[in-house]
Design goal:
Blueprint: H1 4-10, E1 17-19, E2 26-36, E3 39-46, E4 49-56, H2 59-73, E5 84-92, E6 95-103, H3 110-117, H4 121-138, E7 141-142, E8 151-154, E9 159-162, E10 169-170, H5 196-211, H6 223-231, H7 234-237, H8 240-247, H9 254-265, H10 269-283, H11 286-292, H12 298-338
Antiparallel strand pairs: 1-2, 2-3, 3-4, 4-6, 5-6, 7-10, 8-9
Helix pairs in contact: 4-5, 4-9, 5-8, 6-8
């Protein structure tokens, strides 16, 4: 929660002009978008373009978040966070306020999108989120304060975007910001150390939140309390195993969790993989290779041809044998008549 003095310092009314001290860019405040422990985010206008502007009296916090956004910008083709546009200070009477300006990502938040599209979209959007988290983790960061409020869906085509990087923390350090419902420490299911499992726990709770939009209050805590809610939800039943594994730290990476969700939506994928391995093994055998190199149906025709050839040979042998037996019988008959 933001302290009152900081909120008062950063509180500005619509129409306020923010003049950058160093870069001299001017931003007109339109409205407040939200606030957190380290600052307030506003929708602003600059050169007839809408932008998001975050201000804080905590210069270190601003510097940290700017470094995160710069790091994300180095990931080619990534949608990990908004694009960074400007960093500057705004001098108010008797006080300096640091701010940075970023791309304004327009669209509904995660839960609103699901309410509009239906629960069938849950898996699709979670798959996208996990792909982005894998990139983030590969670059040494943990999102930290991961929750539906910090996820915006743009499009069409629908694309999930992470916003508000204030809780993003370097792996190995203590989580800077968190929201209790999505925090494994709150549920007694792990520490607040920044590691990939912390984010994956939050992903599991985001899936739970999709079925319980108003969330629920912890009573006893622990895995059983959460899973009892999961089992009562028809929408979550298909993901029961995935949610359990994410909440209990079974996944080593976002990619691993993503793979299990893909298998839920493609239940025959493992069977196809096994079949492919068997076919590859068979292809290494000379006889199988010969058959496998033929067009469809050729192996069957070759088998029938061999069978017919074998059958003709067998018939010929039988005919010759019968002729010999008859000839011998006839010879013995003539011999007996003579003697």
């Amino acid at each position: 929660m933001m302290n009152p003095s900081l909120k008062n310092l950063c509180k500005v009314i619509p129409g306020t002009i923010i003049d950058g001290k160093w870069h001299h860019n001017r931003y007109t405040i339109i409205k407040e978008l939200g606030y957190g422990a380290n600052g307030i985010v506003y929708l602003a206008r600059h050169d007839n373009k809408q932008v998001a502007l975050k201000m804080s009296d905590n210069g270190m916090s601003i510097t940290s978040e700017v470094n995160v956004l710069k790091s994300f910008a180095k990931v080619q083709g990534s949608a990990l966070g908004p694009s960074l546009l400007d960093v500057d200070d705004w001098e108010r009477p008797g006080k300096k306020v640091s701010f940075y300006v970023m791309e304004f990502i327009k669209g509904p938040d995660f839960l609103t999108f699901l309410q509009q599209k239906g629960p069938d979209w849950t898996g699709v959007m979670i798959l996208q989120l996990l792909a982005d988290l894998q990139q983030m983790h590969d670059n040494g960061w943990v999102f930290g304060d991961l929750k539906p409020d910090n996820l915006i869906v743009t499009g069409p085509p629908a694309r999930i975007r992470c916003i508000d990087v204030g809780g993003t923390t370097m792996q190995g350090r203590s989580i800077k910001e968190f929201t209790e419902f999505f925090d494994r420490g709150y549920w007694g299911l792990g520490s607040r150390k920044a590691d990939p499992g912390y984010d994956l726990f939050a992903v599991g709770m985001i899936m739970v939140n999709s079925a319980y939009p108003k969330r629920f209050t912890k009573s006893t805590g622990g895995i059983e309390e959460i899973m009892s809610k999961v089992r009562k939800s028809p929408e979550l039943k298909i993901y029961e195993k995935v949610i359990f594994n994410s909440l209990t730290g079974k996944y080593q990476s976002a990619a691993q969790m993503r793979e299990e969700i893909l298998e839920i939506h493609q239940p025959d994928s493992r069977a196809r993989k096994r079949t492919a391995r068997i076919q590859q093994g068979a292809a290494s055998q000379p006889s199988a290779k010969t058959v496998g190199s033929q067009p469809p149906g050729a192996a069957g025709r070759q088998t029938r041809k061999g069978y017919n050839k074998k059958k003709k040979k067998s018939t010929f042998v039988e005919t010759v044998t019968i002729i010999l037996i008859i000839s011998l019988l006839y010879f013995f008959y003539i011999y007996s008549q003579i003697t």
